[in-house]
Amino acid sequence: MNRTPIQRSIIALALAAACSLAVFPGDARAAAAKLPDTSKMNVLFIIAEDWSAQTPGCYGNPICKTPNLDRFCDAAVRFDSAYVQAVACNPSRTSFLTGLRPLTSRVWNNGHEMDARLPAGTLTLPELLKKKGFTTAVVGKFFHQIEYAEKQLMAFDRIESYGKPPGWKGPEPILTFPPVTRTGVKRDPAPKDKKSKAYAEWRRRNSDRYGDSGLEPEEEGDYRNAQIACALLREFAKSGQQFFLSVHQSKPHTPLVAPKKFLDLYDSAKIPDPPAPPDLKTSLYPRRLTVGNPDIFTNRQPSPKEVKEAIAAYYACVSAIDANIGMILDELQKQGLADNTIVFIMGDHGFHLGDHGFWSKYSMLEATRRAPLWVRVPGAPANGKVCRQFVEFVDFIPTLGDLVGIEVPANVEGISFAPLLVNPDQPWKKAVFLVENETNQVVRTKKYSYMTFGNGPFSEALFDLEKDPWETVNLASDPAYAKAKQEMAELLKAGWKAALPEGRSQ
Ligand SMILES: [Ca+2]
To answer: How far does residue 55's CA lie from ligand 1's centre (Å)?
Structure first.
């Protein structure tokens, strides 16, 4: 049958309307929204150490001051439910830089040497970007230790403010700085040999250190890293090459010291007591209460006054990195790169700020496993919105596969969250997963967290997060929760593939 052009248009419109309604029942406009062409965009990572998602102002903290990040929120997607896959730096970074979960990467603690343990043929993010043709640059720490990643670091064209792997032949430092002059604070550097008695003594001596770093803001290593990043951005803007740049911020990792200017932003007396007071009878990690914590207060529990002072010092560290991040984002704008650069800002995992009597990371609880994450893809429809769906850091490589076309390894254990950058409210992963080691594992859904332990005072823990978000009442032996526990145990056993969004596979 022959149709007139008008008839054909009417049929086409009706078909388009039917399709969009079928795919996006509530919002036909969302069907039209999509990401722009991102294939030629640059990629900027800013990774801060040990960063509690409780702290940025735009994550709801009424005290901690993060004006630059709050402003960035207006132009990026803030992921409210972003989770790491391991409890400390080395395994978490290894996971998100390979797309493999810790039991597959075989790296689940800080002592595991990454390049000796990764499955044969594994390529890390910088290697995948290099292969794709990116110019690659790193400022400060990236992998946990240089010795763990000598082969992988060779993928960087520029290595600044960080050790060089043997045989690396790149340019000289782009900037040099005068030595620092510390005022009023005695310098007490750590002995090099971490196994020595002197190191153990130094650690004890410095266990409870927080407060004034004795440095001017411009003398801080993190500030200098930001300055180096700005210099590299100026260079990249001139050359026009597609770049990957990763910038490290060592704070708010311990020691919780910052320039006085940032400490002066806080009155420690006004800091509220942390939630979830310590309780030796129910504690999942009682040694932390009887002996000490891994990174600060390593020999004893702090007094209530010290708790408030340490939290204020941590906030000062967060404000310091906020200022540095603002400097980098301003330079990106100034150099005309902001509209062509994908920005990821994140913590490498979370941090306990006195809840449960815990400090540091190294737990399977929310304070460790949840980390701050912002992603800005220029022109993404979801920019300025909050995504409350679950994403995992193991998703970074597949996401960059979607965005800039890097080759995504077949054994990757996450999925691209690029669709959430279009519509952040669509149904997504049912659960997130993290492991502490081969026996200690956790699965978290919107309602529950369920953990197994191979050692310690409990073999299982179940928390009802809707009633008990700070995970204080272990319901594992409560008959009223027997069915919920069984379902969570089954989900943990079934693993990450069982929690993928409907219709999605790896
Ligand atoms: Ca870390």
So the answer is: 16
Euclidean distance between the first and the last CA atom of the chain, given in angstroms as a whole number: 44
Query: Which range (14-28, 77-91, 250-264, 273-287) has the least confidence?
Result: 14-28
Cα 108 to averaged position of ligand 1 atoms, centre (Å): 13
Under the banding of pLDDT at 50, 70 and 90, the label for residue 179 is: confident
| Cα 469 to ligand 1 centroid, rounded to whole Å | 24
Mean pLDDT of 78-83: 98
The domains found in the chain, sorted by start residue, are: 39-428 (3.40.720.10)
Instruction: For residue 263, report the distance from its CA to the centre of ligand 1, in Å.
Output: 22
CA of 341 to the centre of ligand 1 (A): 25
Query: In which region does residue 113 sit, left (phi positive, over 0), alpha (psi from -120 to 50) or beta (all else)?
Result: beta
Q: Taking residues 173-185, what's their average pLDDT?
A: 83
Structure tokens at 129: 């970007």
Q: How many Å lie between the centroid of ligand 1 and the Cα of residue 88? A: 6
Ligand 1 centroid vs 295 CA: distance in angstroms? 11
Give the dihedral sign, CA 161/162/163/168. negative
pLDDT for 242 beyond 80: yes
* Ligand 1 center to 91 CA (angstroms): 10
Nearest of 494, 392, 396 to residue 434 by alpha carbon? 392
pTM of the model: 0.92
In the reported structure, the alpha carbon of residue 249 is separated from the centroid of ligand 1 by a whole-number distance in angstroms of 10
Q: Which of the two residues, 144 and 180, has the higher pLDDT score?
A: 144
